[in-house]
Amino acid sequence: MKKVHVFNAGPCALPQVAIDNAIEALKNFSGTGVSLISISHRTKEWDAVMDECRALWRELLHIPDTHEVIFLGGGASLQFLYVAMNFLEKKAAYLDTGVWAHKALKEAQGIGEAYAIACSKDENYTYIPKGFDIPTDIDYLHITTNNTIYGTEIHEDMDCPVPLIADMSSDIMSRPVDVSKYDLIYGGAQKNVGPAGVIFAIIRKDALGRVSRYIPTMLDYRTHIDKLSMFNTPPVFNIFVMNETLKWVKSLGGVDAMYKLNKEKAALLYGEIDRNSMFVGTARKEDRSLMNVCFVMAPGKEDLQDEFFAFAKERGMVGIKGHRSVGGFRASLYNACPLEDVQALVACMQEFEALKK
Ligand SMILES: *Cc1c(COP(=O)(O)O)cnc(C)c1O
Fold first, then answer.
1. Is 169 in the pocket of ligand 1 (CB under 6 A)?
2. Which domains does the chain have, with CATH numbers?
3. Which of 44, 124, 180, 220 is buried deepest, with most CB atoms within 10 A?
4. Low-confidence ranges of the chain (pLDDT < 50)
5. Which is it for the CA torsion 274, 280, 283, 284, positive or negative?
């Protein structure tokens, strides 16, 4: 097989060891002789996976006792509804930093009063709005810490006078997070911690039960906290691969080690974008994402775009097409993307420049 470098935005590259162990478990799960996708989820072997996965989340992110972590189906998009159902009583504010943030807001508006506290749509979401006042009479502020499509990121855990809720779909486990600053952190696994089909939610337990509406059983976070994410059949395959991925993160030194490597990878690629006369970055420099690096052809070079795609493809680059709402290129440098892949992309950009100059 040809050597490929996978920069997909999600589903994305996962550690090879997680994939290999999943293949083995599909044939014979935990020495039972039964496939992972045929086992009963009410067995001690499966309980062990759930327990290990929960423990790894707690350990890797230093989740305090005040918070619980659960795993569910439905995608991050369904979490937009969960958030409003479980936390919106009178009014909520959303920081509108992109398509996903906007969808979260829209979903909340179907449940109650929700508004954009600040918005960066005026410049096609290429920056993170700053300096806005947060009123204290709102139920929560919702933020999207990494904007997967536009390549912008909120780099610090902000101090917030009201409960803070964050969609961390595409930067969870990429940097240390002070979980105690959030009432809820959620996201889809498929950007950095596993395959599509499972979400994680880290919830401050005493923040629940404060809304007066009826919450359907499946949409009530308390149901899933009480039943340890096993109220109904959990997505066993997805949780298994997530657990393997987290074991791999731990084996490399945990989230601190990931963060160090992620900074190195991003600095290498942004450095090349800024140096190379063929390309320019699209996100404002101070808000550049460590995970999704967005760039386009430099002014006057636009007609070379298709040629660069073909050139990069020939050299094994996979998944560098930008989202249709931004155009150009996007390289996603999630945890499982090795430094060597970024080096290969940088070399490819340099070769292209030398050829065209
Ligand atoms: C991908 C993504 C989503 C949507 O995830 P689904 O699991 O496909 O619903 C939501 N928020 C962010 C930040 C994302 O990157």
1. yes
2. 16-251 (3.40.640.10), 254-356 (3.90.1150.10)
3. 220
4. none
5. positive
